[in-house]
Amino acid sequence: MKLFDVYPLYDVTPVSAKGIEIWDDKGEKYLDFYGGHAVISIGHTHPVYVERIKEQLDKIAFYSNSVQNPLQQKLAQKLGELSDCENYNLFMCNSGAEANENALKMASFHTGKSKVIAFTNSFHGRTSAAVATTDNPNINAPINKQQEVTFLPLNDFEAFEKAIASDHYCAVILEAIQGVGGLDEPTTEFFQFITKKCKEHNVVLIADEVQSGYGRSGKFFAFQHHGIEPDIISIAKGMGNGFPVGGILIHESFKPSYGLLGTTFGGNHLACAASLAVLEVIENENLIENAAELGTYFKEKTQEIPEIKKIKGKGLMIGLEFDFEVAALRKKLIMEQHMFTGSAKNKNLLRFLPALNITTKDIDVFFEGLKKAL
Length: 374
Fold this sequence. Notes:
There is one protein chain. The protein is an alpha/beta fold. It has two domains: 14-46 and 288-373, Aspartate Aminotransferase, domain 1, CATH 3.90.1150.10; 48-284, Aspartate Aminotransferase, domain 2. It contains eleven helices and 14 strands. It has helices at residues 35-38, 47-57, 70-83, 96-111, 128-132, 157-164, 188-200, 269-284, 287-301, 327-335, 360-373; strands spanning 14-18, 21-24, 29-32, 88-93, 115-119, 149-152, 169-175, 204-208, 232-235, 246-251, 310-314, 317-321, 339-340, 349-352. It has a seven-stranded mixed beta sheet with strand order 4-10-9-8-7-5-6, sandwiched between helices. Helix 2 packs antiparallel against helix 8 and helix 6 packs parallel to helix 7.
């Protein structure tokens, strides 16, 4: 049997990692400034993370959600405290796509409606409703296109007000900072306008924090830069530092009932142990504050490179825009400078998504490598 060939691969085979350092099967060292799509939030093989998972593995790794699992409640309490979202309830699943799928399903249950407003260059996942709200026809199969989704430009007040006034929508789904789309953001005024209009029309506002959450923007959630309160918040990626885990935070005004949502693997013992370890490290190492400070330092360093035409994003979720496509630059960075970076739908954008515990020295090394690659 062969693997189903859907991924273009660099000729690099990682076999071990620590912090932002990765070693391949030939003993070559690379620096990870991408974190596998912003998944590695506290660094590869962080000792606290490894210890907590090993401890849990020696006890029990998995049982279904038909029995008590106190780790879930412990995680919900800690997550509420650190994120300042204690007036939400946690439902756990396995990925960002599944998180958004459940968020959209909850919105439809809550309103009795089915249409969704999403935004140009959005990316919300690859499952049925999530991919339908993703602005990429190449990954939408005919079965996904049965969903009713209206795509609007970011920060277009008039288009949004006209659309939502039809009263046909169950949800608005919005990334506080677009990831795959290219680091574009809603303005504070637009975010607050959306929130107001959603309340007026009984439409559920879903903040997709799958990539921008967990401290990456310099606040626990990126929507917190805008002073708004979504109805549902979707989370994944940095939540487990590589362990597959996701979830949605559902405002306490939504009422649960048995069987409304469900999952086999979501919230299992190992997933909870991994997620609790991430929160422990974020809190004890002040990683949210570090992300904010290093985001400022990173933007200052960009002044040394005239080829950079625009800087996007916040904290350690940053995009560097050039006046040329960056595919060749990314290849040079990984093959010659041994540095992992990311691409975007915007082909001129280089994405920088490292672990939140990097240092100014790491950023200096990145810019030296970038200068050489340019």
